[in-house]
Design brief:
This protein is an alpha+beta fold and about 400 residues long. It is about 55% helix and about 15% strand. A 7-stranded mixed beta sheet has the order 2-1-3-7-6-5-4, with helices on both faces. α9 runs parallel beside α12 (about 300-365). The radius of gyration is 34 Å and the shape is elongated. The two termini are about 40 Å apart.
Length: about 400
């Protein structure tokens, strides 16, 4: 008999693309393969540029498109543009009238573009390595000034804030996750994300609205808004899991089939993954709020407390649903046990009734010549009368004992 293969969950297309990129990059010197013990830490812009040049020479290692979008805004205006010529864009100085510049990089496969951005904004090699080696644990890090920093973008503060997030989204009744990396330096906020969409469309709409409070604040406030959107987007996901658990609860009580317990365990695994993402995210928000850096304004610190509270609420909901899923698993086992006991009870009653009837049938089925009842005219009806009386008496006794 052919063994049935175990079904695996579908792989996110973004993950497939990065895996193809890494398989091609492992054939190159100093590529994006996972670092081995003793390997030099970090990825400098020079290393990325060298990998990008070698990558172009590898057959079949096509670079997937990377979209670079820039938002420049001040209290009275906001402009959006898609960057097609990145070197020319980086060569232009930042307009002093611009309060905040947000550069969003959608896609991580164009290493040449990432190398140019890392060199221009002085991104730390350790942060660049964590950005490309997905997935990372959500975290907050404050880096000192690095060589190659561009003063017109860094303003008077040369610190670099690096934040790693795991963005969870609900797409077609399925939860997908991707890593998002934020770099905050002066008036500039860079976000690197995997292709496939995000949860920041409301933020883009707020930036385009006249009189938006988001325009009145600095770049750290924009980073707060992104953190808040990522954390709050867990609530509809948990609501989705809550509805699924309610449906499974009804099925466990009405029709506890093996497919139900499989779905319960699948939800428990997914909730565990969400828990592993939100727990360190809460700590990252806490560090972002308390880190003594000039990059973080007092208004941002005030609103970050609300994000921290939301993260705690998300964790509590996850724990509640995990306990509910565990309780449903125990309820399923109890329901199956009860049904099994009921079946065994019915079978035992039937067996108990037929044991004396089988005895009578066995006695009168023996091939002895001188059985006294064999010659009686009413032997056959009498036999059935005795059998029915015995069965009825046993049923009456079972009912009296409350076994029925």
């Amino acid at each position: 008999m052919k063994k049935k293969q175990r079904a695996h969950p579908p792989i996110n297309p973004m993950t497939q693309a990065l895996r193809r990129l890494r398989r091609a990059a492992r054939r190159l010197p100093g590529a994006l393969a996972k670092p081995v013990p003793g390997h030099a830490p970090g990825l400098s812009p020079e290393q990325l540029a060298a990998v990008a040049r070698d990558q172009q020479a590898v057959p079949g290692a096509a670079v997937e498109p990377t979209t670079v979008c820039c938002y420049d805004y001040a209290p009275d205006r906001c402009t959006r543009r898609v960057i097609t010529d990145l070197p020319a864009f980086l060569a232009q100085p930042l307009d002093p009238a611009v309060s905040v510049r947000w550069i969003n990089i959608d896609g991580l496969s164009d290493l040449g573009a990432i190398a140019s951005l890392a060199e221009h904004f002085g991104l730390h090699p350790l942060a660049v390595e964590d950005m490309l080696h997905t997935p990372q644990r959500p975290k907050f890090e404050l880096f000192p000034p690095a060589n190659g920093d561009s003063s017109d973008h860094a303003s008077t503060c040369n610190d670099l804030i690096f934040i790693v997030l795991i963005m969870a989204r609900l797409v077609d009744d399925a939860v997908t996750t991707e890593q998002v990396s934020l770099f905050l330096r002066g008036r500039v906020l860079l976000t690197f994300q995997e292709p496939g969409g995000d949860v920041w469309e409301p933020i883009r709409q707020r930036l385009m609205q006249d009189g938006s409070k988001l325009r009145q604040q600095d770049a750290s406030f924009l980073a707060y808004a992104m953190l808040d959107a990522v954390v709050d987007h867990h609530f509809p996901i948990l609501e989705f899991y809550g509805d699924k658990l309610e449906t499974l609860e009804a099925r466990v009580l009405e029709d506890p089939r093996p497919t139900v317990i499989n779905q319960i365990h699948a939800i428990k695994r997914e909730l565990l993954l969400l828990r592993r993402e939100v727990w360190p995210l809460r700590e990252a928000v806490n560090q972002f709020q308390r880190e003594p850096s000039e990059l973080v304004s007092n208004a941002t610190r005030t609103f970050l407390r609300d994000v921290h509270d939301h993260a705690v609420a998300v964790i509590e909901l996850i724990e509640t649903y995990r306990e509910l899923a565990g309780g449903l698993a125990e309820t399923y086992l109890s329901s199956v046990s009860v049904r099994m006991n009921q079946v065994m009870k019915v079978l035992t009653i039937f067996a108990s009734i037929f044991i004396p009837l089988t005895f009578l049938a066995g006695v009168y089925g023996m091939n002895f010549k001188y059985l006294p009842e064999l010659e009686w005219k009413w032997s056959y009806p009498l036999f059935w009368g005795v059998c029915l009386a015995v069965a009825g008496g046993m049923l009456a006794w079972f009912r009296k004992q409350k076994w029925l």
